[in-house]
Design goal:
With 337 residues, this protein is of the alpha+beta class. It is built from 13 helices and 7 strands. The chain has 2 domains: 9-165 and 316-335, Porin chaperone SurA, peptide-binding domain (Triger factor/SurA peptide-binding fold, Orthogonal Bundle); 191-293, Chitinase A, domain 3, CATH 3.10.50.
Length: 337
């Protein structure tokens, strides 16, 4: 299956850190825009725009697909995500400075496991695509390993700082596991049956068609579906792909056959919900999940330590916020992005 929503990271990076009014238009046109630089400084230590943009790229790609017209909701969600990422990196540096004298270390194999988990979650387990994204964002694998190590050190330091928290009770551990069990699954084993209507950005059969009119058509079809019109009939009438004659039905499609951005959107939608129109460089897609088979989740025995840590973190969240706020006030923080 042809990947959907494969938005180039170069475009995402340019849009993420655009400052001039024309920057996003230039990015969409494929123009080269300089995105290197400093996103923030914490006690003289630099947080680069490349670090921020790599963490933001999957979010940007999903939001671009969900909001073809961009608009206020896109801007709100994106700016919120960007602010959260920068704050996370700032707090991470504050904590690393706070505990650098403790000599904490993380075993290399644990870093490898965390990177593999992130590849499964964000890139459907595609290591080639993951490394391509690193290269485009001008991050080396060693640099990303260091980012991951720092994140894990901060988690360990936070756990140590609040080690006097009340121990998790068995029912609290079980409840937390039940709540997040599905998010711990091996997403690369997800499978879905869905119906799809694809409207190309341009139509060779209609020389007057433009991306704007095609988007309007897709929006109109989505409105008809929301009003109760039959998906199969509309797919046969309007869809322009190989599955149109079958009413857009595609059965038992592995998640790994889809682009990570497309999969992240539709696998989070319940069966029967109309999703879209979603945008990719080729056009606009409307999807209705029919049946979702999620990949296996690890048993509680394998993730108990992590679950216990999550429970402790919840119990100490208010205490932690007070603690980190005092450190923020003492730190020299200069956010530029």
């Amino acid at each position: 299956m042809k990947p959907l929503f494969a938005i180039s990271l170069a475009t995402a990076l340019a849009a993420i850190f655009s400052t001039a009014p024309t920057s996003r238009a230039q990015a969409a046109a494929g123009g080269a825009i300089e995105v290197n630089g400093i996103a923030a400084k914490v006690n003289g230590r630099v947080i680069t725009k490349n670090q921020v943009s790599f963490m933001l790229a999957p979010i940007y790609a999903q939001l671009s697909a969900q909001f073809p017209r961009r608009g206020p909701q896109f801007e709100t969600e994106f700016n919120k995500a960007k602010a959260n990422v920068i704050q996370e990196l700032v707090d991470r540096q504050i904590i690393l400075d706070e505990f650098k004298q403790l000599g904490a270390s993380i075993k290399p194999h644990l870093i490898d496991e965390e990177i593999k988990r992130q590849m499964r979650e964000l890139y459907n387990g595609d290591e080639v695509k993951f490394r391509e994204e690193l290269k485009r964002s001008r991050l080396t694998m060693e640099g990303y390993r260091e980012m991951t190590r720092e994140k894990m050190v901060v988690q360990a330091m936070r756990a140590q700082q609040f080690s006097d928290a009340p121990p998790p009770l068995p029912n609290e551990i079980q409840q937390e596991y039940n709540e997040i069990r599905n998010t711990l699954r091996d997403v690369s084993k997800d499978v879905m049956t869905f119906q799809k209507i694809f409207i190309p950005a341009t139509d060779p059969e209609n020389p007057l068609a433009t991306p704007e009119t095609q988007l309007s058509l897709a929006e109109d079809i989505a409105s008809q579906l929301a009003a109760g019109k039959d998906f199969t009939e509309l797919a046969k009438a309007h869809s322009k792909d190989a599955y149109a004659a079958e009413g857009g039905l595609q059965e038992n499609i592995p998640r790994t056959d889809l682009s990570a951005e497309f999969a992240a959107i539709i696998f989070e939608s319940p069966a029967g919900k109309i999703v879209g129109p979603l945008m990719d460089p080729q056009g606009f897609t409307i999807v209705k999940p029919v049946k979702i088979q999620y990949g296996p989740a690890p048993p509680l025995s394998e993730v108990r330590e992590m679950i216990e840590e999550r429970v402790r973190r919840k119990k100490t969240s208010a205490q932690y916020e007070r603690w980190i706020e005092t450190r923020r006030k003492r730190a020299m923080i200069d956010i530029k992005a």
